[in-house]
Design a protein that fits this description.
This protein has 271 residues and is mainly beta. It contains no helices and 20 strands.
């Protein structure tokens, strides 16, 4: 099997579990065969244990809250790192605690290709607005590319969109890709036929899934991955579909998902 289609779950609806190493995890998407996947991990104050993926797995991580000293470099929220399989363990210390998104996967590296370790302060990176897809121009997107995998094996990037990301037409085409897509919504909101995604929303789409009709009233900042491609390749549907500005919560969830995953996150607070 492979990682299941999840579109979408609010991480607030996922239960914290004791990881047995002093940390707590929320398992957002796990391959049922080998345990690879994506988790939120909470490191307590004073933790000195670095992430330890199983043998043969690479590790990506993004610091959502708190502060961590990594190999002597103190980094706060919006730090990103990548460690290829077989890389020596990091020196990892957090005095006040931290919340980290972690992705562990087997990523074979083609012969003759490099797969370097990465550690970035994303706040210091410039935004790139040169790669708009014309069909998504209404989102006013900008990117920060964090990693390009060897041999066209996958890209990790931050994607941001301005508020009032509405099209000038009442309908839009659907889209699909020959590669997977994974997203964690760091802040903001996104409307889709599956409902309104808010801070902490997560999805994983296997290749070939039709999706889209995305609009955003308040803007967004999200971490995205395209496993299997360093550049997103999109097929657009010939038919257009009406945009839903008040979509009901109708997620796609894996078989056996906890009942709490099917409950929508609270609406935005009133002033």
């Amino acid at each position: 099997m492979a990682r299941p289609h999840v579109e979408f779950v609010q991480s607030q609806s996922v239960e914290w579990q004791d990881a047995g190493d002093g940390t707590a995890v929320k398992r957002l998407n796990i391959d049922p065969d080998n345990g690879d996947g994506t988790v939120l991990r909470r490191y307590p104050a004073g933790s000195g244990r670095a992430p330890q993926p199983r043998a043969g797995l690479s590790l990506e991580f993004y610091v959502l809250d708190g502060e961590i000293a990594i190999d002597g470099r103190v980094l706060g929220a919006h730090a990103y790192g990548y460690r290829p399989a077989g890389t020596p363990a990091l020196t990892w210390q957090t005095s006040a605690g931290a919340l980290v998104l972690e992705i562990g996967e087997a990523r074979p590296v083609p012969a003759g290709q490099d797969d370097p370790a990465i550690l970035l302060d994303c706040l210091a990176l410039p935004w790139d607005v040169s790669t708009y897809d014309p069909q998504l121009r209404h989102m006013h997107n900008a990117r920060k590319v964090l990693r390009l995998g060897p041999g066209d094996s996958g890209r990790t990037f931050l994607l941001a969109g301005l508020p009032h990301g509405f099209p000038s037409t009442p309908d839009l085409p659907l889209e699909r890709h020959p590669h997977g897509e994974e997203m964690f919504l760091i802040q903001g909101e996104m409307k889709s036929p599956q409902g309104v995604m808010r801070d902490g929303a997560y999805f994983y789409r296997p290749p070939g899934i039709w999706h889209g009709l995305h609009v955003s009233e308040f803007g967004f900042l999200m971490l995205m991955r395209s496993p299997g491609a360093n550049k997103i390749s999109t097929q657009w549907s010939e038919a257009r579909h009406p945009v839903q500005y008040r979509p009901a919560f109708d997620p796609v969830l894996p078989e056996g998902a906890p009942a709490a995953w099917g409950r929508p996150h609270a609406a935005r607070p009133t002033y």
